[in-house]
Amino acid sequence: MTIVDQAHDGRATAAGAGIICPWVSGAEDAAFYRLYVEGARYYGELVHLLAELGETDLGFRRVGALVVSDDADELAAFDTVLSRRRADTPEMGATSLLSPRETGALFPPLRGDLAGLHVAGGARVDGRRMAAGLLRAAQQLGARVIEGHAELVAAAGRVTGVRLRDTTIAADRVVVAAGAWAPTLLLPLGIALPIEPQRGQIVHLHVAGQDTRDWPVVLPQGGHYLLAFDDSRVVAGATRESGVGFDYRVTASGQAEVLAEALHVAPGLATATVIETRVGFRPVGPGIRPLLGPVRGLDGLVIGNGLGAAGLTIGPFAGRLLCDAALGRDMPLDITPFAPLRNAGPGAPARPLR
Length: 354
Description:
The chain is an alpha+beta fold. The protein is 28% helix and 28% strand. The longest helix has 23 residues, at 30-52.
């Protein structure tokens, strides 16, 4: 196996702080929700496999998750929903309603009036460290890694490899998992992949004198979040900026948005030190369903894309599915609903241009 990576600035995985807690999602698409929860379930197997190869520096820890609100009745209703979901997803673990005092004991910077719904199975992962661990593990198992710009090679309705500088690497199957940069790679083959970059700005804070390694993920209402890592670090995220292309900058408005949302929920972070702000471009499609699987009418090509903000939950499991598809193996999940060239009417994902 050969892995070719151009190592673009702004790769979403390298910037991401992953929240593994799909059970609290409001997703109503059954196929997507099933993929989402299977992604979370797969982490148990993946972490074990990587540990057998000596890869344990992944930033992964099952610390639990806290859905927070100043409306206790809202949390109680949500707990009822999760109780019904637990029957099919036991890895969610126990859920428990917490008073503001109990909630604050788990994540001390939180606002004093916020009650919580604790989800024991929630976890967090450092995207940058997880990706590096997976790459090292692949190399241990014989993969060759090349950094550079690749172009797809095709003939007679089949992708036959990639061209890298003056070298052509032949392949029986080519998996294109190039994130927001995939449309440019695929366009010469006549495939218009409807993926756009969505910029996310994520602020990392240092909380002096605090042991943060067991602090849970915090999920307020809306799309922002807080999570902690082992080195007195709290991560506040994230913006969802469409229409900015690949503008790889930390902006004043983006930083202000993230910090304002974080301090609204956790005013105790006001004296924390800003360490860095990471920028990543999520690959976002026209609908919630990712694009996964072989390309109909173009043998030898497999696409994985469109995971959006769910990338660090679904990504490793999607990689497993794409590997199975490339090798012609039976898969643990039917990926037909995620066919990359499916055409379900207006706004549907990719269509061949010719």
